Amino acid sequence: MTDKRPLRSAQWFGTTDKNGFMYRSWMKNQGIPDHEFDGKPIIGICNTWSELTPCNAHFRKIAEHVKKGVLEAGGFPVEFPVFSSGESNLRPTAMLTRNLASMDVEESIRGNPVDAVVLLTGCDKTTPALLMGAASCDVPAIVVTGGPMLNGKHNGRDIGAGTIVWQMHEAYKGGLISLDEFLSAEAGMSRSAGTCNTMGTASTMACMAEALGTSLPHNAAIPAVDSRRYVLAHLSGMRIVEMVWEDLRLSKVLTKQAFENAIRVNAAIGGSTNAVIHLKAIAGRIGVELELDDWTRIGRGMPTLVDLQPSGRFLMEEFYYAGGLPAVIRRLGEHDLLPNPEALTVNGKSLWENCALAPIYGTDEVIRTLDNPLRADGGICVLRGNLAPAGAVLKPSAATPELMIHRGRAVVFEDFDDYKARIADPDLDVDETCVLVMKNCGPKGYPGMAEVGNMGLPPKVLAKGITDMVRISDARMSGTAYGTVVLHVAPEAAAGGPLAVVRNGDMIELDCNAGRLHLDIDDEELARRLADWQPPQGLLWDGGYRRLYVDHVLQADQGCDFDFLVGCRGAEVPRHSH
Ligand code: FES
Ligand code: MG
């Protein structure tokens, strides 16, 4: 252990004046003895527990194990709640509150007597929100994830959270299964504590936290109910106390090199498109420049090795049993595909030191080899063109290869309500060669940029047995969804991007090889249409947080953070409260 440093928390508890008396005295109503205030590192346990965030509903038990570790290492644990953005219940979308949660985290850390934090994260938005808030403070921090649910079971087979809903609903709409059959999978899909067990956004962000070096190895994949999850929580509690003495702050871990590693790992795991937005937002908070083109430079063309739904076959349980993320990182590193093996992680070792000898179990089916990948062209395909001047994304591993170069007639929906009202209309002029276009689902337009980009196909197309079409919008897509889906078109329609002026019958060209998304009208016509464009009505919320959101949210290529939240503001201790 390095020499003891002055603790931040001593500015609350370390004096014998009026202030020290007050800060200690009220804390003592919890039964805390004098010696606890005697220079022990105070570890905040930032808890997104909520019964309305079912994926995080088991977090109080995880917090107990973190506390055991903190106590064992000589720290003083203090658990506190922060806003819990739950994906499954929150309407209009949990994304609306990611930044709100990040503000809660940032101010909770800065204003309180904590020397470091353990971030308990699980459901999709909770991981980026807590990392964003902690990064803006730049304190020592370690991520402990709640872990994925056990495999879903239904009708004699394994089913994946989220993915099975999209699959069965399309089958039901196409008349291939009954309503009873559709509804019968509900209880079997979510049968244990934990987050979605597919490589959806929660699993992706847990892998990103691990690849960034902000968690202990194996944090991403240990199932929520596996006893090793509690061991990891305990060890993380022990480690964060050492990190205080080492002054191992987030800025030493969250470097540009770490983000480059994460982008490469995202390709290897077939991770969610939402990672593009969240990594940008986290990078912005710590002061790292990260651009969409970094995803092309580092991630594009990288093979997808992990054979998990929605791109592949298996679920997070199998992923853990096959060796989890350290095994993937080992595979990359052994083929010189880890951009920055020396990047520092929270355990004080480099990413490569942690993973070089990671065991890989089984038959290379779940974590595939480089010469037998799930998809040779994984990663995120960044698209640009007159339809997306600031960029758009597509996930090749979830797309149909034949559709990734496609020219088709636009069938336009003005917004999600318009889509829902007309998609099942037998008279809708659409066939499988068309391109479904949806507007006004971006950060300002929805608002909150809901996960509606994987528009279900028209029933009359589904009835032909067709399962994919090219779809384009300014929305996001659930990490559990799939299809040849162009997302995050920027600028969004509601901000006056060219998407706003696409008309029925326009021809659109998608070329994923060239990274091109083109509206086939001439420049003068496009300029004329944009000059005539009027913002959609009803967009300006009257007040409250949602008004703040619409006024300050940045576009998707900028990570959808608020303009005034970008940057690291440190954790200088504020003046006394009395
Ligand atoms: Fe919470 Fe998927 S809904 S992790
Ligand atoms: Mg999700």
UniProtKB/TrEMBL annotation:
Keywords: Iron, Iron-sulfur, Lyase, Metal-binding. Gene3D superfamilies: IlvD/EDD C-terminal domain-like (3.50.30.80). Residues 365-560 form the Dihydroxy-acid/6-phosphogluconate dehydratase C-terminal domain. The keyword Iron-sulfur applies. Pfam families: ILV_EDD_C, ILVD_EDD_N. Residues 40-354 form the Dihydroxy-acid/6-phosphogluconate dehydratase N-terminal domain. Belongs to the IlvD/Edd family. PANTHER family: HYPOTHETICAL DIHYDROXY-ACID DEHYDRATASE (EUROFUNG)-RELATED, HYPOTHETICAL DIHYDROXYACID DEHYDRATASE (EUROFUNG)-RELATED. This is Dihydroxy-acid dehydratase. It comes from Stutzerimonas azotifigens.
